[in-house]
Specification:
Helices cover 68% and strands 0% of the residues. It has 9 helices and no strands. Pfam families: COX15-CtaA. InterPro entries: COX15/CtaA_fam, COX15/CtaA_HemeA_synthase.
Amino acid sequence: MTLVLFSLGVYTAATGSGLACQAQWPLCSDQLIPALTINPDFIEWFHRAWAMVTGFLIVGVAGWTWLGSGFDRRTRLAATLAVAILPLQITVGAITVTLSGLVPGGYAVSTHAAHLIVALAIFTLLGLATIWGGGRGNARLLRAAAGIAVAGIVASALFSRAVPVLTYAPPAQAAFYIAGLAGHLGLVATVAYATAAVRSGYDGLDAGTAAIVRALAAGSMTALVGTLLLGRDLVLYTATWQGINLVALGVAVALAAGAMWTLRGTGELRDGSVPIGGD
């Protein structure tokens, strides 16, 4: 739900629908529910409605971690922090559409950047709550996370404004963020599982290798976040910024691929033998 909300928000802004609803919030053009046809008012309203449902689900996830059994402190903390910063995201979103015209310049670069960064923080915290709440990791999950990271980053590059393969139209922008965030979630999982491996170890994976994988994934994540920020109209997108964007994408792919390569064969019995019991 949060991943889809990200793409809906990007699509809404890219189509100019964020300025629809006569710059009103929470009403839309003096209505609670606008005409249910594909128009700017409906796109903006649907984005808000999806955000509201997602917000309630985020609160529900946090409650589940506290009321359910088997969740550790870090899982509860991640889910609770997501709820704690949710009001900030709602407030920034309201300011972005100018809060019924009361906040001049609300639809500005600074609020767009803040809206994106806070949303990314919530998405990351929910990812950590899911990963940590799912039980102990293993080398197979670590390899899968690194593979998802590489696939997501490469796919995002195909939709990126830095790579002239597709026109960076609203649908392409939404697809860029879906792919990029999938890659980001893969990197978050890679860092989380590698950290667990450093602390307790996985079969076939030593702490030194896990530490290298964690460092590579963290570096890739930093570069990828830069591309996600450059995917919005936060700068005057000149040839220089396009070059910086391409470098960031290249670094993100290279480091994630390095992590995946480092993990090749871990957790597997390479010679086909089986453990022997007894003295």
